[in-house]
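Allow me, if you will, to draw on your knowledge of protein folds for a short while. I have a record of one protein: its chain in single-letter code and its fold written as discrete structure tokens. The full record is reproduced below for your convenience:
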Amino acid sequence: MIKLFVSDIDGTIFDSTKSKNISARNIAAVQKMVAAGITVTIATGRMYSAALPIAKELGVNVPIITYDGALIKSVAGEVLHSEFLTPEIILEVTNFFEKKNWHLQNYSEDNLYCAFANDLTALYEKSIKVKCNVVGWDAMKNLTKDVCKLLAITHSADETFEIISALRKEFAGKIEVTKSHPQFAEIIPYGVSKAAAVKILAEKLGVEKSEVMAIGDSENDLPMLQAAGQSVAMGNADDRIKAACTFVTGNCADDGFADAVENFVFGGKV
């Protein structure tokens, strides 16, 4: 029996680059689980303030996992767990990006900052509906309080791969680097993941691993999908994600999320 259902947001419940709202069918699927006594939450790379409206739209009032697992915070504002990048690492990574002239974003105290504005800033702001504060490189190096994540945004999947490879080589054992989108490289505290956060939340709720189902589509979802008792890959996920999961559902654009709930939570296949 599923007691905790954990879902990624982008590319799973909805595609924020193509739609402003979650489909009525996906919202209904969430509410059906809630009515059945299942705790439904989201686990996302998004900042808390950008994930909160999604939780409210879904109609759930539970702890949500944000910043790829670095912050678990309730809809009401109670912090259950948090981990932050150290000031030393923030300075090192920011200097590294400045030298490369790569686009970097900082999330100090759940506010969004970047060194300079460009088309990538505009893309991100439109996607998550949060305004970025443009402050310059020097100020970026001093934004060290409560930073759960830094984010690199690129123009292509190839550029993202290049940045991730460079970061993993330069900062091995100091940070975690993962991909949440073809153009997003996520930089989070070492040891942090959605999987670790789901484990923490499940323990707080008294839920066993076998009672957890997770659904997602991206590389940063993979640890969570592998750690859950049962897992669902979106149809738009790549083959590596699908191979790691118990089930595969339809595409995000076709309400594959709702199909997964119907088929694997209520359809007798679980």
Summary: The first strand starts at residue 4 and ends at 7. The chain has a mean pLDDT of 95. The first helix runs from residue 24 to 35. The radius of gyration is 18 Å.
